Amino acid sequence: MTQTTSPARVAIIEDDPILREELALIVGLAPDLQVVGVADGLERGRVLLTQEIDVLLIDLALSDGSGIDLIRETSARAPNVRIIVISVFGDARSVVQSIEAGANGYLLKGAEPAEAANAIRTVLDGGAPISPSVAGHILARMRNRESTPTDGGPSLSPKEVAVLTDLAKGFRYKEVARLQGISPNTVGDHVKSIYRKLAVSSRSEAVFEAVQAGLIRLRE
Q1: Distance CA 178, CA 79 (A)
Q2: What is the tally of structural domains in the chain?
């Protein structure tokens, strides 16, 4: 007789409705995973965590507080729950704080569906998935923590700032185009300009460099 394994139970705490639905869809499409509940903030998240779950996907910047607080509470009350942060990457400190609080992995918003699903499987197997770009930036910051920013850094146009801010929140090109009232092709043109000005080649690098330079500000 073939023994069947129950799907891993996944809870999602994310205050952006579009991204929350996207995460729920990614998990729901995986045959070995199951969404057991979603919440949009700390208080509803605390209620959600009263049930049995295996993996918690959580954003750090929630409307009613920091996800790090809930990570710390979950680690203390339910140490068997595996925790993955799904967030924008503003600085290495937020990553370190979340891991110190008990997070087992850290993924950037906008990650490919396969990457998110595989990250869940990895933590269930005892691993610690961290987006390569995040890990790279952490190492870079540790190696250069004594360096100071130089004056006369790159500047972005108001529209480039708006586009990059939306991308930092995890929105895709089509969603950014709708929010900014421009075409997806124009979004792509702005992104190319942003990458050129910041001397980067990926979204996460652009967000990181822009935050460090004070060009964009993300909600804590």
Answers
A1: 41
A2: 2
Q: Determine if residue 152 is left, alpha or beta; phi over 0 gives left, psi from -120 to 50 gives alpha, anything else beta.
A: left
Distances in Å between the Cα of 154 and the Cα atoms of 91, 134, 200, 204 are: 18, 22, 12, 17
- Percentage of the chain surpassing pLDDT 90? 39
How far, in Å, CA of 47 to CA of 171, rounded?
28
DSSP character at residue 130 = B
Position with higher pLDDT, 132 vs 186: 186
Residue 197 sits in a domain whose CATH number is 1.10.10.10
Instruction: Determine the structural domain holding residue 170 and report its residue range.
Output: 158-212
Residue 94 inside a domain? The answer is yes
3: pLDDT strictly greater than 60: no
Q: What is the pLDDT of residues 42-56, one digit of tens each?
A: 999 999 889 999 999
Q: Which of 142, 168, 183 is the last residue of a domain?
A: 142
Angle at which helices 92-101 and 67-77 cross, to 10°: 20
Has residue 151 been placed in a domain? no
Hey, which residues does 100 pair with through a beta bridge?
A: none
- More confident of the two residues 130 and 137: 130
pTM, full prediction: 0.66
> Are both 52 and 88 inside the same structural domain?
yes
Residue 146 confidence (pLDDT) above 50: no
Cα radius of gyration rounded to whole Å, the chain: 18
